[in-house]
Each structure stands twice: as C-alpha cells, then as structure tokens.
Specification:
By secondary structure, the chain is mainly α. The protein contains 24 helices and four strands. The protein has helices at about 5-25, 35-45, 60-65, 85-90, 95-105, 130-140, 145-175, 190-200, 200-205, 210, 220-235, 240-255, 260-280, 285-310, 315-320, 325-330, 335-340, 345-360, 375-390, 405-425, 440-455, 460-485, 510-520, 525-550; strands at about 55-60, 115-120, 490-495, 495-500. A hairpin with a 2-residue loop joins strand 3 (about 490-495) and strand 4 (about 495-500). The termini are close together. About 50% of the residues are buried.
Length: about 550
C-alpha cells in the first residue's frame, strides 16, 4: 500500500522532531533510563542477565549524580531528588558547570560493569530489548557519556519510528479499502483523517515523543505491536493461511520476550480470531483449517514467549505482573491490605493518572503546564473514542471494526489492575503510567480515524474536532519549548506545585544565547534545535498536502 504524499511528509516531520528531542534530552531524563541503561550495560559487559532482587544500577549513574543534575523528584518536595536539580545546577558556579560539561564529553576507559547501591527495578523485564542494545553499548563502550546515550536513544527511536511507519502502511490499506463509517453522498472525503490521525499520531498525541525518544523497551514494544497489528490485518486476505498465522505467532512470542504487555494482547488477539471463526460463515473444511491455523499461532507464541515467564530469572507472577505485585504478596496479600484501606479516592486518582499521563506527563521530571490545559486534549480523545464506538456494527455482522478493542481492552485492564495493586500496597494514588498505551499506536490510530470520520458527518462535531486537533498540535510544540526551558533551569519545580514555575528574574527567558549555552552543557543543541525546526517545517508541509489530497479507495482485492 502506497501512503499519500501528505502522510510521508508528516512521517518525516515526526522523525526529525523526535531526533531533535533525543539530542536535547539531558542524561537520564527519559523515563527509567538509569535502570534500562544498567540492564544493557550489565549484559554488554558481563554477558549475564539482570536478576530481580540482585541486579543493581550502574555505579556510573552514581558518579554522574555527584557531578550533574538529575530529574526532579516525582513526589513533593520536587526539588529534593537526591542530587541537584537543573535549577540548582545552573545557579551554581561556572567552574562546576564547566567541569560537568567536560566530564560528559570525556572518553571513558573500557571497564567492567560496576554495580551500584540502588536496586535495578527494571530487572523484571524479559531480555530481548536489552540483548539487541548490548552490541551497540559495546561499540560505544569508551565513547563519552553523551555520545553513548545518544546512540542508544537513537537506536531505540529507530525501532519506534519503524513501528509508526508499519502502523501507517497497515492502517492506510484498511482505511482506503474500507472507508471508516457512513457519510452523506454529498460530503467530500476527509483524507486528513487518514494522514493526520495515522501518520500524524505523534503530533496529535504529543506524549508519544517523550515515550519513544529515550532508552527503553517501549520502542521495541511499539515496533512488535505494529507488526502484530499488520499481520492481523493480513489475515483478512482470502489467501491468508498457516504462514500468516505463524508470522503473527512469532511476532507475539518476541513481544512476550520484550514486555509482559504482550501476554494479555496475545490472549486478546486469540480471542478475536476465535470469535471470528465462531460467528463466520465458512464451510466445515475451511473452518477446520482456520482452527488449525489459530492453534499454530498460539503454539508459536507460547513456545517463544512463555519459557521466560516460567523459567526466567524473575519467574512466575513477578515476571508477568511486576515488582509491585510481588511486593504486595510480601506485605500480606491483596485481601489483608485492602481490608483496612482508608482512602478509596486514591483508586480514582490512580485511574485518572492513567488518562492524564497518556495525554501528557512530560519526561522523568514530570514537568507539565497547569492541569486545566490538558482538558482540550481529553475532550479531543473523548470525541474520537465516542465516535469510534458509535460506528461499530453488530459484532455478528462484521467483527473487523472491533479488532482495536481486543488490543486496547486487555492492556487497559492490566493498567487498572496495577492501579488497584498500587493503591492497596502504597496507600496513595498515582504510580500507573498511561503512556504505555502509545505502543498500541496501530489499533488506536485506526479507531481514532473511524471516530473522526463519524464526527465529520456533523458540522458542529467536525468543527470541534478540527479545533481540538489544532490545539493538540500547538500544545505539543509549546510544551516542548517549556521542557527545554526546564532543562536550562529557567523554569523549575519546587515544593508541592506540580506545574512549571517561572523564575523570579525572567531575564533568562529572553536570553537566547544563554539558553543555548545551557542546553549545550547537557545536550547537543547544534544538532537538536535544527532537527526540531526541520520537523516543524515538514509538519506544516504535511498538513498542507494532506488537506489537498482526496484519494479514492481502490477496489478491494
């Protein structure tokens, strides 16, 4: 399937904008980067897999902590992060700033992995992502820390961008072959829905960039999830057979070796395919073949993915449900802890945190504007979701439009389960990130396109959708600038105020040369700022081209 020209421009814009963000991201500012980095380093240096309970963060992180700023704390007081903040660092002496800049650019000796004092909480994860990154780490073993982090982030982002491109191609084939939802005969086609809601997902859902432009296994999850989505779409072809089911099973098995999210998704896909076979109108012989193919898919997934959860270092429930579930078991179990829970609103807080952090959570410093500015993003998502649900036909008549739910619902149920575990264990809300849902870009983007198409049939809804989409793009651009100001120490977090705080002396906000020099201490603005500008230019061209394209869907094969 050939993508429309507008979609190609938007994809190029996402690539360049993402490159700019990872070039400007200070060390360890990506979510859980210290833990992911330690797992990669341990495998690269020792050839051993991290073992939950024994694995430690790298001592390299501790040495950095004593020299340069770390992300703001995630709980108040936010400035107490166990090191120095960006605000405190740039308020320090020029000599200490210069020493940090020099150390970050100095070549490192080839040393073995040195375990630090802090436990590696990401050691629960399956090893595939870390095994893929380990050769790159060995290649960059003596490079300066900034260069080493950049190449690892670049490789991770390449995986994520590959997943974005795969999802775009797969969804474009579906949308052009089966236009999403009815429209009045006189209404023009809405090609922007195909391009801006599929290829333009990172621009409309701005949390995608911080989720993927970092070191972390979510990038590989997105790539494998998009491949799984593409294989599932291929199963709609009349000639689909055992090979296609096997490819889907292998992809899901590799996903299970990347993150436990693939366990419920694999179950959801198997349930969807089984449902299609139950309600489908097929001959007895074809039906038996379909069930054999489904069994082949399940067997391939289980053979590749399940041994890690049964026999791996983490093992059993800890590998499948995470360290918080294991900690809950050690604290007496769910019933014992839930029986004396005194703050039921904490559960509501945890569930709403999933939604808020899907829309925007920033980076590991969790910098964000006032919460009210997230409401238009929430309204935009709600319009798309409601529109999608309204277009669903009866399940028995056509199950294909229901496919995204068999991806989303299992993971969303897992996140809610984690929210319950978190509240039960720690007696407070939060702690369950919603940005993980961006690995479902493929099915989510298709559902969003159907929802937007439904809204396009009503003038008021069409106007609201267009206005909110424009707001989402503008929000992502503005908040990226605010993030950069936080990294320079010009904006900061302190006390119990979650939102960005402005400095008492605002002169730093208009000192362009000073801001660039500060960014150059912890990042590479000479690369990052031109990449951001290029990405924005490509975005503008992509939106313009998309608005002028009116492709007709080809006849179904």
């Amino acid at each position: 399937m050939t993508l429309p020209v507008g979609a190609l421009w938007l994809l190029a814009g996402s690539l360049w904008f993402g490159l700019g963000q990872l070039a400007l991201l200070p060390p360890w500012e990506g979510f859980d980067e210290t833990a992911h980095y330690a797992s990669i380093q341990q495998i690269a240096a020792t050839g051993t897999l991290p073992r939950l309970g024994d694995a430690r963060l790298s001592r390299e992180t501790e040495r950095y902590r004593a020299l340069a700023p770390m992300p703001y704390a995630s709980t108040p007081p936010f400035e107490q992060n166990g090191a120095t903040t960006y605000f405190g660092f740039f308020a320090g002496s020029p000599a200490s700033i210069a020493a940090a800049a020099e150390a970050l650019r100095a070549r490192l000796p080839q040393t073995e992995f040195e375990p630090g004092n802090e436990a590696n909480w990401e050691a629960q994860h399956p090893p595939l992502y870390y095994l893929l990154m380990a050769p790159l780490f060995r290649l960059a073993a003596t490079w300066p820390l900034l260069d080493r982090l950049f190449v690892l982030r670049l490789a991770s982002f390449a995986l994520a961008f590959g997943g974005l491109a795969i999802a775009c191609v797969a969804n474009a084939a579906v949308l052009f072959r089966h236009p999403p939802g009815p429209s009045p005969p006189a209404a023009p086609r809405q090609p922007v829905l195909v391009t801006a809601l599929v290829a333009g997902w990172p621009w409309l859902m701005p949390m995608w960039f911080p989720t993927m432009a970092r070191i972390g296994n979510d990038s590989l999850c997105l790539c494998l999830m998009s491949l799984s989505w593409a294989w599932l779409i291929r199963l709609e072809r009349p000639q689909a057979g055992a090979r296609d089911h096997l490819l889907l099973g292998v992809t899901l098995g590799l996903g299970c070796l990347t993150k436990a999210f693939f366990l419920p998704v694999a179950a959801g896909i198997a349930a969807f395919l089984a449902l299609r076979r139950v309600i489908g109108d097929r001959s007895a012989e074809t039906g038996r073949s379909d069930w054999r193919n489904l069994a082949l898919m399940v067997a391939a997934t289980a053979a590749i993915g399940l041994p890690w959860y049964l026999f791996g270092p983490a093992g059993g429930r800890t590998a499948a449900f995470g360290v918080d579930f294991a900690a809950l078991g050690g604290a007496g179990g769910f019933l014992a802890r839930w029986s004396d829970l005194e703050a039921p609103l904490s559960l509501l807080h945890s569930v709403t945190t999933i939604a808020k952090s899907f829309l925007w959570a920033g980076t590991w410093s969790f910098g964000r504007p006032p919460l009210i500015l997230l409401l238009p993003l929430a309204a935009f998502s709600a319009i798309l979701a409601v529109g999608y649900l309204r277009t669903l036909p009866p399940l028995r008549s056509d199950a294909r439009p229901w496919a995204p739910l068999f991806f989303v619902v299992p993971i969303l149920a897992g996140l809610v389960f984690h929210a319950i575990v978190w509240v039960t264990l720690y007696r407070r809300g939060g702690g369950t990130p919603g940005w993980y849902l961006h690995i479902l870009l493929g099915p989510l983007a298709l559902a969003a396109a159907r929802g937007a198409r439904a809204a396009a049939g009503r003038p008021a809804a069409r106007l609201a959708t267009s206005a909110l989409a424009s707001y989402a793009i503008a929000f992502g651009i503005v908040v990226t600038g605010l993030q950069l100001l936080m990294f320079t120490g010009c904006l900061f977090k302190a006390g119990d105020v979650v939102a960005y705080q402005w400095p008492a002396d605002p002169r730093c906000l208009v000192d362009g040369a000073g801001l660039v020099s500060r960014l150059a201490v912890l990042g590479r603005p000479a690369l990052g700022l031109p990449c951001l500008a290029t990405g924005l230019g490509l975005l503008a061209v992509g939106l313009f081209r998309a608005s002028r394209e009116h492709p007709e869907p080809p006849s179904a094969p």
